[in-house]
Every structure is written in C-alpha cells, then in structure tokens.
Amino acid sequence: MEDLNELDELIQGNTAEEKLQSAKEIITGMEKDIFKLRAELKRNENSMKKLQEAVSASAQNQNNTSSAFLLPSEFKKSWEILIMENILDLFTPFLSSQIDFVILSQTLVKQIISYVDKEINCKVSAFLSLLGLNESNSDKIRKYSLKMFQDNYLTAFPCPPASKIANIFLGIVSRNVYNKAKALVETSDFENFVNNMHKLSVHMLLNDPPLDVKIPQEIEYIKIIKPDDYYYIDGFPVGNPEAILVLPCVMKGNHIYAGTKPSVLVLPEDFNKNPSPIINKKSMIEEQRSADPCVRHQSSLILNKYSEDLDSYPPLQRRKEDFTKKDCLLCKINSPCAYCSKVTLLALAKRIPNSANQRHIARVQSNSLVESPAKGKYITNALSRRLSEAAKKMDKKTFIKNKHIDKEACKVM
C-alpha cells in the first residue's frame, strides 16, 4: 500500500489522460536510468578484466625484467629500424621484383631465428649433460636458466660471423637469383642486418613467453584498408592499393607484441602475380621429366627451397659425359652403355612406324615371299611398342644398378 501511495504521489495530473501520460514519462525515465546502469556495469567489468590481464602479464614477465634485456619499447624501436631501414638497404636490388624481395627477406629472417634457437638448445643440452639429466628435463632447465640467459645474453649468444649465415643463406636460395644473392652477402648491409636480426631473435626466444614471427608458407597479398596498420618498406598507400606482405607483426601468444605492425610492399597497378618471377613451376616440372636424377633433385630443391627439413644430399652426379665413353655401343657391341643403348632403341622404335604404309614382305620357312600389309602393320606396331618398353626398362634398371652407390638416387625414382 505504501508503494502505491508513493506511486500516486509521483503521478501528476487531474484527469486520467494526464495521469497516464505522466506514468509513461516516469517509466521512460526509469528505463533510461536502467540502461545507464547496465552500461556502467559493463565498463566496470571490462576494467576489472584488464586489471586481471595486467596482473597475469606482470606475473609472466617477472623473468623479463633484466637490466640488460630489451624493454618492449626498445624492442619495438629496434624492430622498426630493422624493417624500415635494414631490409630496404640490403634488398634494394630486388625492389623491382617484389616476390624475390619477399622470399629472400623471409628466408634470411627464418634462418637467423632458426640459428639462434639451435644456439639456445645447445646451451640447454650442455646444462643437461653437466647435471647428468636426460632430454625430458630440457624444458625445466630452460625455464630455470632463462633469467641467467637474459642477464648475459650478449656474451652467452654472441652474433656469429656474417659469412656463416651467408653460407646457410646461399645454400637454399634459387639458382635464378644466386648471383645477385651472392653479391648481397658480401656487402656491409648484410652484416648489419645479421647483427640486428640476431640480437632481436635472442630477445624473442628468451622472452617469457617466447615471441614469434608467424611467416606464411606462401606469398600473401593484402588490400590496404587502414593505412596506419602497416609499415611501408616501399611505396605509398594511395586509395586502397594492394600490397604484398614481407614480414608479419611480432606475436606474444595470440596478441601483438609492443604495438608492432606487419611490413608490406605496395604493389604497382600493372603487377602480375602469376607466374612468379623467381621460378616457373610448370617449366620446372617439364624439366624434371627429361632431366637426369641429379637435375631432378636440384629442381625439387628449387621448387621447395623455402620449406624446412630439405634433403641436403643430392644423388650421384651422372652426366651425359659419363655415358659417352670409348666402350659404348658404337665401339663395342657386346658391352653397350646405358645411354647409347637407350638412344638406339628409341631411334629404332621411331623409324619403324614410318614404314608402316609400305608393303611389308615376310620370308617364310619355304623361302617364298608373302606380301601381307595388314599383318606387317600389326607386327610393326607391336615391335615399336616392345622396343619403347625395353628402352624404359633399360633406363630404370641401369639407374637402380647404382643404388648401392647412391641410395638417394633410388628415392628420386
């Protein structure tokens, strides 16, 4: 009853219509107040969530407070210098070929990060050996030694000679750009890039949790919608241009670290995505079908030169000169070499169909001559097919015969 009396006091008006209108206004005002309270509650919940994340991050980063270790702001500044200056200075000769630029820069970055990771694993393995522990304890040892690694990372993980990274880099680049790449590794810009990237890689892998640059497996094209979201190595974003991704941003788990951005090259309007300037896969496949085992292996390396765990042991070097010896079929009938035998069989199989339209004469036991064009054509086709099959089998048998010398050659087959 008291609530109803209070409600009657709030409602103003002499007539029923005026009281109804007053009640509607009161209800509308209360709904607005409820909406404001809900919005404020949502803001408070978000604030509490951010505080919880900050507390969790401070707990995770308690090992990242070394005085010698880079702060996030210092890392971001060094990363921007690497992206905006060092990469551009080093790979300037490839600016006209954007795909070459991207592949080479990504390959070099991946190799340096991989090299640093191997260095850290070697240090951890040394600790395990010293303590007499097995590999199952490597994660624990790495966690316990993390603070010590951070305090002494400049002495524990010195930058390797640029020539060492250069040899690794040149060992996996395409033969189409090998000469240009070889000229790059001999410059001071290459040494400067290796030094800076090595230092950043040590910071990334010793961070708790580790930082990561998730380089895509294939070329990635981006439509620029928000220009402020990218680093531009070359070109200016006019309108909504298309760009090619060089390096993605540095990630800490599922979050962007220290406000880093993806780096891109703005593409010209007449840019052709296909075929790739660095290699034409269709022509390479045709080449593999006709090449010897060594060439096929080298071609497969070029097609997959940016993938990991490549086979670094090519098959036996077998060239045409190895077959054209003095003891070939042209010299000794009883000891033909594989190359001459194959060529002879294929040539014979090629010539026989040309005589299919002629009149074929077969000699029978009675020494009489029988003319049989249809039967001769059938014999010709069968003989041609058998000769071709024999040539293929001879090529395969000759190749398998060397498997005790070169097992990898058999894998190529």
Can you describe what's shown?
A four-stranded mixed beta sheet has the order 2-4-7-3, covered by helices on one side. The protein has 16 helices and nine strands. It is extended, with a radius of gyration of 37 Å. It has four domains: 2-63, no CATH class; 72-266, no CATH class; 280-314, no CATH class; 321-412, no CATH class. With 413 residues, it is of the alpha+beta class. The longest helix has 45 residues, at 16-60. Helix 8 packs antiparallel against helix 9 and helix 11 packs antiparallel against helix 12. Keywords: Coiled coil.
Architecture blueprint of SSEs:
Elements (H helix, E strand, L loop, with lengths): L1 H9 L5 H45 L11 H19 L7 H34 L6 H7 L1 H6 L1 H4 L5 H9 L7 H8 L2 H19 L5 E2 L7 E3 L7 E4 L7 E6 L2 E3 L2 E2 L6 E4 L14 H10 L2 H11 L16 H4 L14 H14 L9 E3 L5 E3 L1 H28 L6 H6 L1
Parallel strand pairs: 3-7
Antiparallel strand pairs: 1-5, 2-4, 4-7, 5-6, 8-9
Helix pairs in contact: 3-10, 4-10, 8-9, 11-12, 14-15
Class based on secondary structure composition and strand pairing: alpha+beta
State the separation between the terminal residues, measured CA to CA. Answer: 96 Å
Biggest beta sheet summary: 4 strands, mixed
Compute the average pLDDT.
74
Order of SSEs: HHHHHHHHHHEEEEEEEHHHHEEHH
Annotation field: number of helices? 16
For the largest beta sheet, what order do the strands appear in spatially? 2-4-7-3
Kindly state the percentage of residues in helix: 55-70%
List keywords for this structure.
about 425 residues, 3-stranded antiparallel beta sheet, disordered C terminus, coiled coil, extended, 4 domains, 9 strands, 4-stranded mixed beta sheet, alpha+beta
